[in-house]
Write a structure and sequence with these properties.
Elements: E1 3-9, H1 14-23, E2 31-38, E3 41-48, H2 51-54, H3 57-62, E4 67-73, E5 88-92, E6 95-102, H4 108-117, H5 128-140, H6 145-155, E7 161-166, E8 169-173, E9 183-187, E10 190-194, H7 197-202, E11 206-210, E12 215-220, E13 223-228, E14 230-232, E15 237-238, H8 239-245, E16 251-252, E17 255-256, H9 257-271, E18 278-281, H10 287-297, E19 305-307, H11 320-330, E20 331-333, E21 342-347, H12 354-365, E22 370-375, H13 403-410, E23 414-417, H14 420-427, E24 434-435, H15 437-440, E25 442-443, E26 451-452, E27 457-459, H16 468-477
Parallel strand pairs: 15-24, 18-21, 21-22, 22-23, 25-26
Antiparallel strand pairs: 1-4, 1-10, 2-3, 2-4, 5-6, 6-7, 7-8, 8-12, 9-10, 9-11, 12-13, 14-27, 16-17, 19-20
Helix pairs in contact: 5-6, 9-10, 9-14
The protein binds 1-O-pyrophosphono-5-O-phosphono-alpha-D-ribofuranose, glutamine and magnesium ion.
Domain Glutamine amidotransferase type-2: 2-222
Catalytic activity: 5-phospho-beta-D-ribosylamine + L-glutamate + diphosphate = 5-phospho-alpha-D-ribose 1-diphosphate + L-glutamine + H2O
Organism: Methanoculleus sediminis
C-alpha cells in the first residue's frame, strides 16, 4: 500500500511533495522518492529510508520546478533493494516520464516476459516498471497519454493507483475497480492528487473529490481536466484500507475512516456484549474502534498499552524478525490501568498474530484478570494479491483454523471478530463495491488458482474533456 502524490503548483512543488509524503508515511516505510520537472530537465531524488531521512532542505531545493510526483514504498512485488525505489524514470528524445504506483499487478510475469521477448530490458524487479514501460512504449510510438493509459487499463490485471509526470504535466489514474484510493485537492496555486486526503490537509488544501475508478486526471499550469478511460459494473475498494491502512483522519471514497472504525467498535460490542472494567485499544490503529466500543458499552476507555511514539508500523515491515523485534519496542503496558481488571482489548486486525500474541501475554503479566480480545475485521484467511504483503495462507494465523484455535494460540480469555456483514454495513458502500479477498478468498480480478467474482469493464476513452464541475470548484477557490 504505498503512498503516492502528484502536484502542480506555481509556487514550486518539492517542499509540498515532501510534506504530502510525510503525511502518507504510514503507507510505506521502506523508501521515498520525488521527481520534478523544470525547463528541459527531470530531477529525481530517491533512496531507502523514511521521508525525513531521505530528504533535507538541500535535496529539496535541488528538486526544481512547478510539477512533480512522489512515492513512499511498502514493497509488494520486488524486494527491498535500492533499484526498486520509486519513482522510475523513462527518457526518450525530449520526452521525460517519471512514474509512481500504489497497488499490485497479478499478471506481472506474463507482461514482463512479453516485453522482454520484444527486447525490453528491465532495471527493477517491480510490477511498476511494467506500467512505465507500457506508457513509455506507447508515447514513443506517438500515442497520446490517454491512449497509453487506455492500453494500461486493457493490459494490466490488478490494482494500480498511479501518478505520472510527463515533462511538466502530472497525470493520475486509478484502475477501473478503484481498488486503491486516490483523491484530488485544490491548492492556492494549483492542484494535488494523493493516496489519502490527509496529504491535502497537510498542505492546507481543499479536498475536491476522489479520482473515479477508471479515470485519468491531467494537471498542468492551466488547471485540471479529466477523461473517463474505463468503467466497470462494480467497484472493489480495498476493505483493508478501511480496517488498517488508511489514516483514521482520511476521507476515503466519501467516508471518514474514523467513523467507519468507530461504528465497527459499536457493532463489536453488540455482536457479543460482556461485562468488563476497561476498554483498551491496541495503538495506533485500534484506537477509533475502542472509542466506539466504549461508547456503546458504557465501559470506560482506558489506555492499557502505550505506544513508543518514535516507532512506525510493524505489520508493514518486510521480515518476520523485524516485525517481532519492532512489536517488542513499540508497545508497553500501563500496569496500573490493567492490574486486577477485566480488560476488553481492541485491535483492528489479527493477521500473522505477531502483535496479539505478545501483548496478550504482556497484559496478563501486568495483572489483568481477564483479557477479551475484540477484532475490527473478520478472520484474515486468504492471501492478498492486490497490495498487502501477505502472499501465503500459511503465514496467516486464522487460515484453516477455528476461532477457538486462534484464541488459544494468542492466549486471550475470549476472542470475537466482527462479522463480515457488520463490517460492510459500517463501511456503507455495499459488499459488491469492496474487495474482500483476504476475508472471503474471492477476488475481484482473475488470479490463478483462486476464486474470482465476476466484473465487467468497458473501455470508453474518448476525447479529452474539461471536467467543468471540478475545474469551476477549483477556480472559485482561487
Ligand atoms: O497480527 P499482526 O501480523 O501483528 O498484524 C496486525 C497488527 O499490525 C498492525 O499494527 P501496526 O503496528 O502495523 O500499526 P498501527 O500502529 O497502525 O496499529 C495492526 O494494527 C495490528 O495491530
Ligand atoms: N505497496 C505498493 O503499492 C507497492 C507498489 C509496487 N507493487 C511495489 O512493490 O513497489
Ligand atoms: Mg496495530
Amino acid at each position: 500500500m504505498c503512498g503516492i502524490v502528484g502536484i502542480v503548483d506555481a509556487g514550486g512543488v518539492s517542499f509540498p511533495l515532501y510534506y504530502a509524503l510525510y503525511a502518507l508515511q504510514h503507507r510505506g516505510q521502506e523508501s521515498a522518492g520525488i521527481s520534478t520537472f523544470e525547463g528541459t530537465t527531470l530531477y529525481t531524488h530517491k533512496a531507502q529510508g523514511l521521508v525525513a531521512e531521505v530528504f533535507n532542505s538541500q535535496t529539496l531545493q535541488d528538486l526544481r520546478g512547478n510539477a512533480g510526483i512522489g512515492h513512499v514504498r511498502y514493497p509488494t512485488t520486488g524486494s527491498k533493494v535500492p533499484e526498486n525505489v520509486q519513482p522510475f524514470n523513462f527518457r526518450y528524445r525530449g520526452l521525460d516520464l517519471s512514474i509512481a504506483h500504489n497497488g499490485n499487478l497479478v499478471n506481472t510475469v506474463e507482461l514482463r516476459e512479453e516485453y522482454e521477448r520484444r527486447g525490453q530490458i528491465f532495471c527493477t524487479t517491480t510490477d511498476t516498471e511494467i506500467i512505465g514501460n507500457i506508457i513509455a512504449d506507447a508515447l514513443r510510438t506517438s500515442k497520446s497519454m490517454e491512449d497509453a493509459v487506455l492500453l494500461c487499463m486493457r493490459r494490466l490485471r490488478g490494482s494500480y493507483a498511479t501518478v505520472a509526470l510527463l515533462n511538466n504535466t502530472v497525470y493520475a489514474f486509478r484502475d477501473p475497480l478503484g481498488i486503491k484510493p486516490l483523491c484530488i485537492g485544490k491548492l492556492d496555486n494549483g492542484y494535488i492528487v494523493a493516496s489519502e486526503s490527509v496529504a491535502i490537509d497537510a498542505l492546507d488544501g481543499t479536498f475536491v473529490r476522489d479520482v473515479r475508478p477508471g479515470e485519468l486526471v491531467r494537471i498542468d499550469e492551466s488547471g485540471l481536466t479529466s477523461v473517463q478511460v474505463a468503467t466497470a459494473n462494480r467497484r472493489a475498494y480495498c476493505i483493508f484500507e478501511y480496517i488498517y491502512f488508511a489514516r483514521a483522519d482520511s476521507v476515503m471514497d466519501g467516508t471518514l475512516v474514523y467513523d467507519v472504525r468507530r461504528r465497527i467498535g459499536q457493532k463489536l460490542y453488540d455482536a457479543r456484549p460482556i461485562e468488563a472494567d476497561a476498554v483498551c485499544p491496541v495503538p495506533d490503529s485500534g484506537i477509533a474502534y475502542a472509542a466506539g466500543y466504549a461508547k456503546q458499552s458504557g465501559i470506560p476507555f482506558l489506555e492499557g498499552l502505550m505506544k513508543n511514539r518514535y516507532m512506525g508500523r510493524t505489520f508493514i515491515m518486510p521480515t518476520q524478525q523485524q516485525r517481532e523485534r519492532a512489536v517488542r519496542i513499540k508497545l508497553n503496558t500501563v500496569r496500573g490501568n490493567l492490574k486486577d481488571k477485566r480488560v476488553v482489548l481492541i485491535d483492528d486486525s489479527i493477521v500473522r498474530g505477531t502483535t496479539s500474541r505478545r501483548i496478550v501475554n504482556m497484559i496478563r503479566d501486568a495483572g489483568a484478570e481477564e483479557i477479551h480480545l475484540r477484532v475490527g475485521s473478520p478472520p484474515i484467511i486468504a492471501p492478498c494479491y492486490l497490495g498487502v504483503d501477505m502472499p501465503t495462507r500459511t503465514e496467516l494465523i486464522a487460515s484453516g483454523k477455528e476461532v477457538e484455535a486462534v484464541r488459544r494460540s494468542v492466549g486471550a480469555t475470549s476472542l470475537t471478530y466482527i462479522p463480515l456483514e457488520d463490517l460492510v454495513e459500517a463501511i456503507g458502500c455495499g459488499e459488491r463495491n469492496l474487495c474482500t479477498g483476504c476475508l472471503t478468498g474471492c477476488y475481484p480480478v482473475e488470479i490463478n488458482g483462486e476464486k474470482s467474482c465476476h466484473c465487467v469493464v468497458d473501455y470508453v476513452a474518448g476525447t479529452h474533456q474539461s471536467d467543468l464541475s471540478t475545474f469551476r470548484a477549483g477556480k472559485e477557490e482561487t
